[in-house]
Every structure is written in C-alpha cells, then in structure tokens.
Batch of 2 targets.
Target 1
Amino acid sequence: MPALRLSPASTGELYDLIRTRRDVTRGELGQLTGLSRTAVSARVAALAAHGLVDEREQAPSTGGRPASFVSFNADAGVVLSAAVGRSRVRLAVCDLAGDMLAVGDIDQEPGCRPDDLMPLVTTRLDALLRESGRRDDAVFGVGLSLPGSIDGDRGASLDSPIMTGWDGVPLAPYFRDLTAAPVVIDNDANAIALAERRGEGPLIDDLLVVKASTGLGAGIIAGGALLRGAAHAAGEFGHNKTAAAAGAPCRCGDTGCLEAIAGGWALVAAMRAQGRDIGHLRDVVDLANAGDAEARRLIRDSGRHVGEVLAAAVNLLNPAVLVVAGDMVGAYDIFVAGMRASLYGNATALATRTLQVVRSTYGDRAGVIGSAAMVLDRVLSPSAIDALLSRPAG
C-alpha cells in the first residue's frame, strides 16, 4: 500500500485515518502517512491517553510477535443531535460513530418560536443524555438542523418560510446551560445528505438528496464535498419558478414557485379547499396509502412537477444517486412514479444512464443521524483533535 506522505502527519490526521478505517495496525499507519514507527507510537499513545483509541493484539497467523491493532473508540464521548421541523423535533444522543444511544421526539404546534421550543429541546436532550448513562463532560458537540438557509457564522436561520420568527436568532446560547461543547447548525437537507452519503455501504461522492416534506429542499454532495453555496442557499430548489405554477402564490411571498404546487403545504391546502379535514402532509400520505384517489393524484403530480425541475440539476451535477427523503417517503412509490417520468423525460440520457433513484436509507431518522454526522465531522476533524490533545487528558 503506497504511503500518502502526509509527513509530518499530525496526531489529528492520524486519528482521522483510524476513524475512517476503524481498525488498523501501527505498520499500516506508518505506510499510509510515511511516519516512522516511533512517531506513530507517540501519536497513538497521545490518542490513547485521551481515550480516543483502543489497542489490542492481533493473533499472529504464522507465529512471531503479533501486530497491534489500533481501533477507533466510539465510546470516548457523545454528541447531541436535534432535527427541527415545522411540527416535530427528533432528538438523539449518539456515540462518536454516529450510532444512536437514546432517541426522542417533541411534537409542537406550527409557528412555535425559538423561546418556546428551544428550552424544551435542551431539557429533553438533557434527559436523553442521562438516559444514555453518559456524563455531561462526555459531550463533544451539538448538531442542530433546520429547514431553510442557515447563517453558519451566526448559528441562526437566515431565510425559512416554514419557521416563522426564527430568522436571525442565534441558537447556540440556548445550549449554554446544558454543555459548553460547540454547537453546529446547518440546513436539514444538508444534514440528510451527510447521513445518506455514509449510508450502509461505501461512501457516495456524488449524491443529490431531495427532501420532499412540508417544503422542498435539496442536499448536494459533489466530489465528496457538501455544497452550501456562497450565501448558504444551495439546494433551495423549491422556489425555482416553473411554468406549471404560473400565478400560484407561494408562502415565500412570490408567485410561480415549485413549492406552490408541489410542496407538502400546497397539497394540504388543496385537500382543505375540497373540504377535507387535513392537518399535515402525513395525513395526505396516509390517505393515499389507504387508496384515496385525490390524495394519490396530488402526490403523483407533486412528484411529476419536482422531476421536471430536478432534471436540470441532474444534468448540471450528474449525481450517481438521487435520494428521496422527507414525509413524502411514506408514499414513495406514488411520488417517485410521477418524478421518474418527468425526470427521465427531461434530463439527458447520459446524466441518467446510471442514475439510481432510491428512498432514504434512514427514513424519519435521517435528519437526526445527519445532524450528528455534521457535528462529528467538525469536532473530530484533525484540527479539532490536535486542539483537544493540546490540553491535559481528563
């Protein structure tokens, strides 16, 4: 195996290799980094002193001294995760591998503002932390995802028609009484994209996630990197103009947006206009699955309109996989039947030749798993680990 020649690789860079591979010998670490045996041993010892890695002997196959395996220690700490939606918040405590140790939900009324909801979020996370049996000082970070564009520098919603009263409100201060660990905030579709990239198989480097729920948004992984855009507005395709929505008012204040005819809120409004007692897109999905003809038509047409707009994105980005996530996954076959017809009819044959269209791997857990993934990528990055190791081991 050729060396990557990162020399002199920092301890954080070495840890990143161990985290990626889970189990690796010291010899392999030397080959991958070009570091000497002594340098590898010193870095591994520093990681072990902070509990970040474990070592165990590998039984020799042909006699001689057994090799020492260095293993990523997922139990060295936890991250707290919250995926905030219009009517529900999903919460979790996850280990450093992103596996959920405790999970819970908060149902809230639409229109709930930060001062109403965030204290409930932190109280519930505190309870889940204790349920998981972990100490407060084991918290490495908090991951929080929201619909709409996010101001990463301020840690606040930038533009979310769904979350009234949230724009411009810094959210990290709500966690100060719970933990001093960093709080990482991002868009919900971006979080889902990070979760789906990992999936249950090899990493996917070119991925397009469509979150079809109350609103419409996309998460984009291109060349292995999450694309946020210059104003953190990448993926807001729900407000693309489409001829099918000409003149239709959108909740963003404009007219002609895709969401005005294909977003979950628009489907709910259409059913209510017919005198149906509908409170959420999930109700429309339930009716469709029960055979309601109008609910099935609305969801199929939503998929068709989404596919027409997404065709340009597929041509531009050429993803390997297109993942459908959000509440619409509950009626996946109906929605995707409409989407496939218009997507493949409008995108180029080359861009769709090997394109896989699949449902979310994690279903309604995708947001909270993705929120954990985005904070883990930050707090376990090489620079973050180097900073951690510069402090005395606890």
Target 2
Amino acid sequence: MLLKTARLNKQGLEHDRRFMLLKVREDGTFQNVQIIYFPECARLFQAIDGDDIVVTHRPAATEKDGPNSSGQSRIDAELRVPLRPNTEGLETVDIHLYGAETRAYRMGAEPYDQWFSACLGYEVLLVYIGDGRRRILAHSPRQEAEADKTSTAPITASSSSWISSISSYITGRPQPSDGERPGDNDNEKDDDWLTFNEAAPYLVASQASLRDVSSRLPPGETTDMLRFRPNIVVDGDEVTCWDEDYWGELLVSPSSCNGGGGGDDERSKQDKDDIGSRNGTCRLALTANCGRCLSINIDYETGRMAEGEAGMVLKKLMRDRRVDTGHKWSPILDDMRISCRVRKQMPS
C-alpha cells in the first residue's frame, strides 16, 4: 500500500508490524506465517479506516474457495481489526522471531482466527504485540557509538556498510533470565526495540536499483518493488543504482516525523559530519544491509512462486550482488535503518 504521508517513530511507521499470523502445527506448536514459506499471504491486503484495519482477501483469478471456507465466497470478504485492541484478559503466546523473543496477545478465535483460517485453508492465530518488545537484531546507533569508543581500527565508508551478519546481531546480547518476560532486558530502559519487524524498523531501497534488477529480465518484463518490501523508496536524478550500499544516513523532513509528508534527502557517509546543518532534522541511521532470500521470487498476483525468468530473480542477483561479507551467500538489495532521531536545527 503506497502512503502519501506517514508518522515515523523508532519502531517504524505508525501501526506497522503490530500484528502477526501463526500457523498451528499438528503437534500444537506454532509457526510464524512469513511470506517466504506462505506465499499465498500475498493475497491479503490491509487498509486503515478510522480506528480499524480493514483486511481484504482477494484470491487469484484462477483460485477457488478453499476447503475451510464453509461455502462462503472469500472474494473481497473483509475483516475489521482494531488498531489498538484492549488486551485485558487476552491469552498470551510466546513469539520466536529471528532470535528476538517476546510475548503477544491472541486476538481470539471469533472472528479473527476463523476468518484467516478460512482464507488460507489451514488453522492460524492472529496475535497482537501490545506492550511486547523485541531486541534489535541490527546494530543500533548506541551500539555503533560504543563500538567506536573501544575499537582501534579505522572506520571507513565502505567498511561500516558491510557490517551485516545476523549472527553478530544476536550474539553478545543478554538473554532473558528466569522469570523475565522475553524482551524485558536493556530495551525496556530505552526506546530502541522492535515489534514484529524482522531485524530493524525500516528498510530503504532506491528505484534506480530496482531498474537495474528489471534490466536482468527479458525485454518487456519488469520486477515490482513490492517483492523487496521496503518501507521507504528513494528516487531522483541524483540517485544511481546501488547507491544505497554507501549511504550512512537518510534525512527525512521534520513534518514526516510529526505525522506529515515530506521529501527524502539521502547523503553518503562521507558527508555525514555536516549532515546536521541540513534542513531535515529526522535521521535514519544506516546499520546494515539486507540479505535477500527466495521471497523475492514470489509473484504477488498469484500468491505463488513466479514462473519463468521472473522466478529466478534471486539467482540473477547472486551473480554480482553478493557484496556483503556478512551475507556470504545472499545478494543485497535494501538497507536496514533504525532510530529516527529528532534533533534541534543546527545554526548555519
């Protein structure tokens, strides 16, 4: 869904990644419903209407009603979910997502679990993160600053853009102690934490890089930015393909951080020292690259893996985009950024 305006905070766009689906396995355990394993979820659409999220299921044109639809047509069926549910009395469930754990609230069987189960054809639960928090898996600006104080190695524009191994994000962070709720450690003391984002609150990509990806496909075929699922897309005459490999910060207009619209002004890491003198006062700090997986081969129109050349985008990128030593076997498109830092305007 393309937004003209959005309110930004350290956890991402307002209301983003607060809900998640869990598949119920035969043994009663749960599996996170993620698009790489459940591509049919691409046919679920969301829109905000007042204080509700309106979810619509639109099966592909050739898809018939699933076995759990009870004879009721699922085409354009809607479900309304409150943006801010009352969690009092709701059952909780433990969430394990990329090594950062928390607890979430079950929204309830009727109508939520039943509706999604009917759409997808298997039993699922809808959960809400509420006051739950997850550790940041990408480096936070605070972690970077602490590393700078203790490291004797010089920090260069290229070297800091290669820090990306997910394993390094997880190790060295304290695990919850006995009797402590997952997520209740150092992140409870500040506002650097995640909801259901995978590793960082924001994912930034450029249209120039996407055009380069499309150029690898047969004439007349293009790939859609939706496959890469960024929160922020940057375009403009000064942005060339793969520029985002070297960006250190992204400036966002103050009105965007306060809920209004505004433009984006990207700056390379070499210009980072004087970036505070610009008009923008919200900064998204570059913390890692995003290693891609088979999810970029999904056809969002059918909710299945794409056929032909479109289903080989990952393989095509692996030829020359394995540029991050922390993601040895994964190509890079998108940068993960965290911490929308609002600062006072520096005098010119």
